[in-house]
Amino acid sequence: xxxxxxxxxxxxxxxxxxxxxxxxxxxxxxxxxxxxxxxxxxxxxxxxxxxxxxxxxxxxxxxxxxxxxxxxxxxxxxxxxxxxxxxxxxxxxxxxxxxxxxxxxxxxxxxxxxxxxxxxxxxxxxxxxxxxxxxxxxxxxxxxxxxxxxxxxxxxxxxxxxxxxxxxxxxxxxxxxxxxxxxxxxxxxxxxxxxxxxxxxxxxxxxxxxxxxxxxxxxxxxxxxxxxxxxxxxxxxxxxxxxxxxxxxxxxxxxxxxxxxxxxxxxxxxxxxxxxxxxxxxxxxxxxxxxxxxxxxxxxxxxxxxxxxxxxxxxxxxxxxxxxxxxxxxxxxxxxxxxxxxxxxxxxxxxxxxxxxxxx
Amino acid sequence: xxxxxxxxxxxxxxxxxxxxxxxxxxxxxxxxxxxxxxxxxxxxxxxxxxxxxxxxxxxxxxxxxxxxxxxxxxxxxxxxxxxxxxxxxxxxxxxxxxxxxxxxxxxxxxxxxxxxxxxxxxxxxxxxxxxxxxxxxxxxxxxxxxxxxxxxxxxxxxxxxxxxxxxxxxxxxxxxxxxxxxxxxxxxxxxxxxxxxxxxxxxxxxxxxxxxxxxxxxxxxxxxxxxxxxxxxxxxxxxxxxxxxxxxxxxxxxxxxxxxxxxxxxxxxxxxxxxxxxxxxxxxxxxxxxxxxxxxxxxxxxxxxxxxxxxxxxxxxxxxxxxxxxxxxxxxxxxxxxxxxxxxxxxxxxxxxxxxxxxx
DNA sequence: CTGAAAGCGCTTACAG
DNA sequence: CTGAAAGCGCTTACAG
Lengths: 360, 360
Known about the structure:
2 copies of one chain form a homodimer. By secondary structure, chain A is an alpha/beta fold. Chain A has helices at about 5-15, 20-25, 35-50, 55-60, 80-95, 105-120, 140-145, 165-180, 200-215, 230-240, 255-265, 300-320, and strands spanning about 65-70, 95-100, 125-135, 145-155, 160-165, 185-190, 225, 250, 275-280, 295-300, 340, 345.
């Protein structure tokens, strides 16, 4: 590989000083550099294929145009990609680049990730969670321009961008109500699991479901708690659908659980949606649209969370005093510093009006 | 935020020169710096929480300890995470960090990605594909220390790390043969789709299936071609399983297709594996293990591809003349520069011996 | 309007 | 064994 051209090379070729090429290429030429020299500089740069060394600029300018993002396991999850995509898109528009590090839910790795990011002199920090949860922001995050995505700071210090699950769940329940269902059971996920001890999705979705159902005068039934995967969904649905007073609709913890429910219905010879309506949650690209039948579900705003969180740190960078954007507070508990983003209902084909079961 | 401590601060506190702190902290102290001063430097650094500015080091050393990875859509795919994880693990062990950019199958974005990575002075480049395919390496990749993951260079210039699909598929077919199946049909994916025009997975898997079946004296049947998703799998299986000479086993293009086949079997009142055996491919974490029943499948070596590719560029960095590692060539076409990695069979519960169908 | 100089924070010959 | 100097490639006051 040839030696990369430097500003000096451009200056020599154009017959000007290095300062001149810097000014021209950074748009500070007007009124400072003679027009013909500006042209000469641009031509020389073009000819040499010159592009300023960003490492040198970073040192000189004391900023790297890099934001560090630490995540639990998001880079490995199917949704994670959407969140990261949103963040990348926002970053790209401003010439920023992301370096993302997974912690795999390991505290030591998390600390290490923050340390290497700080050592690398990232301009700002983002923390993103795979599942909507509470996160206690460490000092390092509080000191830097930072934001949270898909989680809420239990220390109350850094702003989070989260899904409005209460409204989302209410919308999901509402489709069922509107279709005429009066006997609905919720296949709920566990609030605790190996990796999170404070999953916010569970209580908030339940609140939403409950509100919508009660507002419509539909009796609220105790949720049956399984897990978040296909198999627990299958098993829970198998049990519920064999009850004497089989419900006409199932509200599922997520789309994987809903897929399990579809399978269970099939095994019992029940058609979806003619015999049971099923609604999922997440709009999981692997499970919702491709399912047979395609699942009616609620879309989690992953892309938006990534995009808004990144925009927020960029705003903080531009103006450290920048206040929180609009929309803080909807669907949240008292005192949470977060902005809730809409969870849109997506209607597909897994919901139909109930038909009177032959046995009643 | 306070001003970050520099080497000067440490030097002053320890009563030595900046050179001394550099030597001590970089392990070049022995024989050069008096032992007591070494101690003083370490203590001062510790006390101040000093950590060398990596931007300044990068400028001085002319290397950033960063490798750029450009991918088509891998950061958004469920498997991509595994590939990236392997790459990150290898990078981490050597103090490297990754910056990854998705192209979304857009040539302009791809070019832009390479450009920003080069502008950022990454030390090496990786290109990773979501699906096993051919990729034509651009000039920029050929000039830099680089490697390919999950694809093979049609220009023959840069080394690829790819799955040994021929052997993987043969192993998948072999389970069926060993269980006693003599009537097997392949639910194959499309070779072309919107995003790839040269998917290598298709022909190579077919070669493997065919070899294993023919070696066992099992008649090779024309594959039925659908797609790569749940629904096409469902539809293809629905048709095949209603034939008069219904096969006793289905070999599926991937686990999503297999999931569709499971659903189709269920709709036809066929039990898996008692009435039909089904084998998938990929070991997709969302579909294989969680399915009911859990799918016997073949695991794609995503983690290994990422890890080996990264190790290779690191080796190139250490010694630009470094030759290709062992294992080049297995399961490949003539002239392909790539190393094939094992696809391990994972046996679960979707395969059983055939039982004579009642109608025969 | 233009060029020489300083300095971002390091590391590595080099002279003492 | 130790410190002063040069230099990585930039940008930005500053003096002419």
